[in-house]
Amino acid sequence: MTWMLNCELEKLGFQVSDLTYENLIAERYDLVHLHFFEGLTGFRNPLRVIQRMGRLLKGIDRQRAAGAKLIYTAHNVVTHDAPWRGLENWYLEQFLRRVDGTIFVSEVSIPLVRQTFPELKSPSVVIPLSDYGDWYEDRVTGPEARAEFGIPESALVVAHLGLIRKYKNVPALMRAFSADPGDHCLLIGGRVAEDDLRGEIEALAAADPRIKLELGHLDDDRIQFFMRAADVAVFPYRNILNSGSAMMALTFGKPVVVPNVGSMPELQQRINADWVRLYDGEFSESVLSSAIAWAKETDRGERPPMAELSVAAIAAQHAEFYRKIAGTSA
Asked: What is the longest distance spanned by two Cα atoms in the chain?
């Protein structure tokens, strides 16, 4: 999502560069904005975490000494499945002490983040995730997409798309699906982060021919085949604060099923219950069965009402906050 935001910010007159150590040392910026820590702290070797985070803080300190302001978007309370949680938290505390302005993507995340990291005392604003606009190709029809995967026209298709990690609970979705003997298909696409998880998913798929897998990196133009083949997207996360995958499915006009946790109730309120279905407790066969019935029986039109979540609208809110923190006018 950050690349779409950056494109829209450039249309609004901002000059945007990648946040790299080399740029932080060589260039001079008015604002430095960090969204995610996964690329800095998700290493099995703790020395790489120390190296990457140390370089980041050094670069940020150089920019702040020259007058730059630091913006942080709190997409999560902490990163998912961090191999060195204590080390990551220590560095995150050092980073948050330097932050000049914080963007929360939901109201519910504010107390969660601030209670976990009281070092974060900066002014803040709530700016939700945007839709995906026209970023992804969308030129194939439903029948063409189903033919690509060998899915019958009569089948109801449940889809799960995105990077597959343990907290996303994909095996639970597969087991619930296999327990339902209906004329359905489960379509799963995305790179699997852990080898043992990949083995479990492949074994479950081998036992049910109605499950179609495409495990690996999906190019942008491949996404449309999954979304156009689908009737409903299901994301049975064990824990989640925000979901870019849910926003992607909604952008393609697909209803989504998500747990009643984190900012998912806010997402439902921003759109409506015809497009965003919440479930409580553990994901199960009954949850999936009722979700399938909801997907089939609800008259919801072709597109969800998401004008306020367009990329342009969300970029304008970022621009306003940037100027506030930088102390400049429009």
From this structure: 64
Residue that the structure tokens 């006009």 belong to: 253
Q: pLDDT-derived band of residue 127, with 50, 70 and 90 as boundaries?
A: very high
Query: What DSSP string runs through 23-89?
Result: HHHH---SEEEE---HHHH--SSHHHHHHHHHHHHHHHHHHHHTT-EEEEEESSSS-TT-TTHHHHH
* 112 pLDDT above the threshold of 70: yes
Query: 142-306: which CATH topology?
Result: Rossmann fold (3.40.50)
CA–CA distances in Å: residue 43 to residues 96, 163, 187: 21, 17, 30
Per-residue tokens: 243: 């979901």
Amino acid at 87: L
| Mean pLDDT score across all residues of the chain | 92
Express as a percent the part of the chain with pLDDT over 70.
95
The letter for the amino acid at 130 is S
pLDDT digits (tens, 9 = 90+) for 156-179: 999 999 999 999 999 999 999 999
Place of tokens 């996404």: 223
Return the CATH number of the domain spanning residue range 2-130+310-326. Answer: 3.40.50.2000
pLDDT tens digits along 140-154: 999 999 999 999 999
Rounded distance between C-alpha atoms, residue 236 and residue 196, angstroms: 19
Domain coordinates in residue numbering, the chain: 2-130+310-326, 142-306
H/E run at residue 184: strand 184-190
Contact 261, 202 (CB under 8 A): no
Distance CA 103, CA 320 (A): 12
DSSP state of 253: T
Q: Is 329 helix (H, G, I), strand (E, B) or coil?
A: coil
Three-state DSSP class for residue 180? coil
pLDDT for 75 equals 87
